[in-house]
Amino acid sequence: MGYRQRSRMRPAVKLTQLAKRAGCAAKAPPGTLFPLLAALPRSTDANVLIGNATADDAAVYRLDDERALVLTTDFFTPIVDDPYTFGQIAAANALSDVYAMGGRPLTALNLVGLPDALPVEALGEILRGGAEKCREAGIEIVGGHTIRGEEPIYGLSVTGLVHPARVVSNAGARPGDALVLTKSIGTGIITTAAKQGRDDEGAIEAAIAGMTALNDGACAAMLEVGVHACTDVTGFGLLGHLRNLLVASGAAAAIDADAVPTLPSVHRYAEAGLVPGGTRGTHRFLADWVDWGALPEACQLVLADAQTSGGLLIAVAAERAARLIETLVGRGASVAAVIGEVQAGQGRAGRMTVRA
Ligand code: CO
Ligand code: CO
To answer: What is the set of domains in the chain, with CATH numbers?
Structure first.
């Protein structure tokens, strides 16, 4: 009996059933992580242009006057059942941190956790998804490391390049800037619904289209127009990552809840309680930072929802916002929306007001 026949007879393993938490919702909560990171010794190497002090997307290490390395890693447990798609999403997500710094990826390394319950063919498909997504980004995966573990894990360590004077950090937002988002949110809620067999509206297709999309075009658009700050929206949700950007920038912000692009069915699923634990954790963390106004709790949870491979969140001078939107659309961003504005941070850096 040939291999093909055997593998067809094998009962399909549902990848997400092998994982307790899905995608970036498996990220350790910010409330746990930040005090630990703050207690570590600060970098004294003058070539470390960006280290772990500002919760930025990637580290930036200056090589010379023209070149700096962008260094980042991201890996997580399955967020979808199809192994090839999981590989694509994990790779797009890891590459995104380089794009969020205004960098260009150069190479990547695979990071793999392999449980006994995962058929080796499925691992092959995960790796193929990652490799093809990297090829789409114009780079190759040049090595990696695999360990046996309880749950499937996949991700990349990515090395990129940026001009030291053209780094887009998360620390440059200025009062009056427009905040622009380049993908719809809600992937944590939708993948949770799908995992529980309750995605009765089939929203997972739109979520997958978003999660597999590279942020390369959005990066090119922001470099072309010139922006003040950027981060990508992943496990801490839209407002969790906005909070990090605002703290790093010493600024505050107002968000228009209605202007935030969301995936189909997200609000309905949130109202039905289909919300990942990571999202609830971030929502609790945000209580000290967000004035929710009259916004219903389900809508609050959407704004806190743990994203996997989310879009770029960009702070741009108000007078350049229209051009940025135009350029993003021209470069193929699925979404390009002004969702609020940066405000002065005196005494309230990191605070957010949500206008319902
Ligand atoms: Co990031
Ligand atoms: Co990341």
So the answer is: 3-166 (3.30.1330.10), 178-355 (3.90.650.10)
